[in-house]
Structures are given as structure tokens and as C-alpha cells.
Amino acid sequence: MVTVKRAAAGIAMAFLSYSAAASNTLSDTRSVGMGGVGVASANYLTASFHNPALATQNKRHDSFGMILPVIGAQVYDGNDLHDRVDAFQDLNDQLAGNPDLVDEWTAALKDLDDGRIDGDVNVGMVVAIPNRMVSTNFFISSNVTALVLTDIDEDDIANHEVINSTGQAVAGGTVDIGFTFAKEFIFLDRDLSLGVSPKLQQLMAFNYKQGIDTFDDDDIDIGSDYVDKSAFNADIGAAYALSRNVMLGLSVQNVFSQSLTSNESSGNQVTYEVEAQYTTAFAYNHPRFTVAADVDLNSNKPFKEQAYKTQFARIGIEADAWRVAQLRLGYIHSMTDFSDDLFTAGIGLKPFGKFGLDIAAIYGNEDNYGASAQLVFHF
Q1: In contact, 33 and 358? CB cutoff 8 Å
Q2: Which residue in 53, 67, 168, 179 is deepest, having the highest Cβ count within 10 Å?
Q3: How far apart are CA 45 and CA 82, in angstroms?
């Protein structure tokens, strides 16, 4: 019997194991704790995940830094779709021997229409070498998005037989390996930083579709069925210090559009698309706290054939206690109907100055939750 609750996150995790690398949607753990902000508030270590221009934002004593690794995952299961699929499949197995269950069977099938579970998994690392000439980071980052979808046909409801109603699992992801280069200039008596992250990008896509009565994640074989291709891409960004404490940011991730058609399953394919993502941001940086806000200027629609898309406005705050501990809180507002608003929280611990551990959590309604963790080294 299907275990759909784990399917979306499980597919994403399996996808990462075959793609062999690393994080973007959840980005770094500090950002997750602050609601996903970073385009104007990232530090020199995390700039490659948000805005390459911020690689210049190092302290005078910073000569080398590293995040190894950052790991994050998020799962959304609105209205307990996994339980409802299990319940329907049980009823479907019993229906042939007990026609009295037909009304209950019909209600259970109707209840599955347009169901969705989605999951994201991210892993990453970065090595940073700040300097006055050109600040440079080497980074590996990947993001995998997986969806489990149900589509119920009205004829099946009327005929009390599963013919056209389906369950479908799709996944798409990227693995980026690249360098960030950033330089600071004086513009209108203020500091202007410009940055670029050229990167080798590996795209992957996977599709599995079956009748809703037989849909089973045990039959999913990502290792032999997924398709992939390599491409060149880049991120660019700018950061302008409006004052000593106020930073404005603008980033464009994945400047060059890419797409990849998945494997065929039950006569069906999906197209995974990577489009440019534009984000603008504001941050107020005080020695003891940071307040930041990011807004996506366009939506992200990972699968061409699916209506699913995301776009967010984010706000976050970080309070610093003598550079030894940090408390972070954030709020993520969904600008589409395909995601709920989310609350985030996180802590950072740097008891010895050079080494730190960050952890963060995400929570929303209807089984929407996530977590992230990373190890940070400063020298």
C-alpha cells in the first residue's frame, strides 16, 4: 500500500543522492531562521546563495570562511492527502466483495481530486576568500522540488471503477557548481557592490504516473528513470549601502532559461523549467540586530504542465548576543494559492568564535514544516 506522506520528500532525497550534490530554495540555515531573507542581508559566506554582490560584506578580520555542509528539507501535505489515498485504496480493495461500500468508495474518490503534497530538499557548501581586490567564493548548491498530485475523473465516480483517475509524482532539480566574484565601488559617495556567479548547472527531471488505485511509491525507480543534462548559467546581483546601516539589494538567479523533458510514464511526460528569479530587498544592519525584507518580483513555476507556482514576500530579524549566540525569527507570505504563509525560527551558536552551528525550523498550517542545519567556520 502506498505511503504517500513520505513520497514527495523521499523522491527529493533520492534525487539528491543520484545528483550527488547540494541548496537554494531553503538556501542557508541563517536565512531559513530569518524567513528566507538574504538578498540584502546575507554575509560574505552566504552571498553565493542569495546575492553574489554581498560577497564583499566581510569584516576586516575575516580572511577565510567555510560552510560545510548546509542541509535543509521542507514538506507540505495539505489536508492529509496520504491518509486519504490509503483509505481509498483500502476501500477499493474491499469493494468487489462488498457492494454496500459503493457510497463510501465514491465519497473517498471525490475527496482525492486535486490533492497535492510537495517537498523540497537542499544541500550545499561554500568556501569564501574575501579580499580588497575581488572577493571570491567557491560554492556547490542544489535544489530539488518534488510533487505528488492526484487527479480524479468524473466518469470514474459515475461508473464506480478506476480507469482515468491518476496519481502522479514529479521531481525536478538543479546542481550548481560555480564561483562568485564581487567588487565594491564608490557611487554617489556610497558603497556599491556588484557580483556575478558563473556556474555549471546540472538539470534533472523525473516523472511517475499510475492509476490512483495502484499508485505506490515502492514502484518508483528514480535511479534508472530520471533524465539529466548539463548547461551553463549564472547569477548576478547588486547591493547599495544607502547609509552606514541600510542596505538595498537586487539579485537575478539563473539568468539563462533552461528546460528538460522528463522520462515517459503511462504515456505522460513533464517539463522541468529553470527561469530567471528576480528579487529585491532591504536590510537594516545594526551591530546588535538585523532586520530585513525580501520580495520576489516574479513567480517560480518549476513544471510547465502543472499549475503549481510559488512567489514569496519575506521578513526576518536576527538579534546578536556578543557574537556568541544569535536568535532569529521570520515570516514568509505566499503570494500565490499554492503555498501557505509560514513562520520560521532559528538559533546560531558560536561559543569559540571560529566555529559555529546554526539550526532553524519552518512551520505552517496543514502539515507544512521544515528544518535546516549548517556548520560554519570563520578564520
Answers
A1: yes
A2: 53
A3: 39
